[in-house]
Amino acid sequence: NHIVVWADRAGLQVYIHAIGDRAVRMSLDAFENAVKVNGKKDSRFRVEHIETLAAADVPRFSQLGVLASMMPIHADPGTNEVWVRAAGPERTQRAFAWRLLGRAGARLVFSSDWPSAISVKPVDGLHSAVNRTTADGQPAGGWIPEQRVPLETALAAYTRGGAYAQFAEKTLGTLEPGKFADIIVLSENPFQIKPLELHALRVLKTVFNGSMVYEAAP
């Protein structure tokens, strides 16, 4: 706790890597303590990963203003058999609980966790967030389907969420006058295809700060 207090007092943004329910609770406790000691301010504390958490800690993210920074690709059912056995049935109910946290008012931030993940591609993360299936649609209906999120929510977490998490919402995260022109052009409109086809989207062009930095071969 004293390290978080010291770092926050020094003006550093603090984010803690926490995978299991105990680690998540310890992180939230540390952030809550820092607010009590240093006073409430725009610290934008973050917990990274949050692969599972206790039910009692779900509302604390919103209450404390702590960002839930998560990596949807880790919920790919093709890679979590060992995870499920290790976590057990009770913890698995709240595995990668994006929808649960979002409904409780937490601000979601999505990213890739590369190179510790099976894919660096955001479209694979979108597919996992929206469907909670493998690329070939297994299991039918999704793994723990009640934690799926709408495409709008997933896109916002990858864009606006990421910008807000790094205090960059005035220049990044959305396409608005005065912001950096960071744009990708996709092969199809993700809102006009079937959710199970999200993983097949291709990036045709990438514009970074107004300059073309990538263009797919014809």
Strand-helix topology:
Layout (H helix, E strand, L loop, with lengths): L1 H8 L5 E4 L2 H18 L7 E4 L10 H5 L2 E4 L10 H12 L5 H6 L4 E3 L11 H10 L19 H8 L1 H6 L17 E4 L16 E6 L2 E5 L3
Parallel strand pairs: 1-2, 2-3, 3-4
Antiparallel strand pairs: 5-6, 6-7
Helix pairs in contact: 1-2, 6-7
Describe this structure in words.
With 218 residues, this protein is of the alpha/beta class. The protein has one domain (2-170): Metal-dependent hydrolases (TIM Barrel). 33% of the residues lie in helices and 14% in strands. It contains 8 helices and 7 strands. It has helices at 2-9, 21-38, 60-64, 81-92, 98-103, 122-131, 151-158, 160-165, and strands at 15-18, 46-49, 67-70, 108-110, 183-186, 203-208, 211-215. The strands form 2 sheets. It has a 4-stranded parallel sheet with strand order 1-2-3-4. A hairpin with a 2-residue loop joins β6 and β7 (211-215). α1 (2-9) crosses α2. The chain is globular, with a radius of gyration of 18 Å.
Distance between the termini: 54 Å
The arrangement of helices and strands along the chain is HEHEHEHHEHHHEEE
* Tally of strands: 7
Unreliable residue runs: none
Helical content band = 25-40%
User: How is the largest sheet built, in terms of strand order?
Assistant: 1-2-3-4
Query: Which structural class should the secondary elements be placed in?
Result: alpha/beta
Q: What is the name of the CATH architecture?
A: Alpha-Beta Barrel
Annotated CATH topology: TIM Barrel
* Average pLDDT, all residues: 97
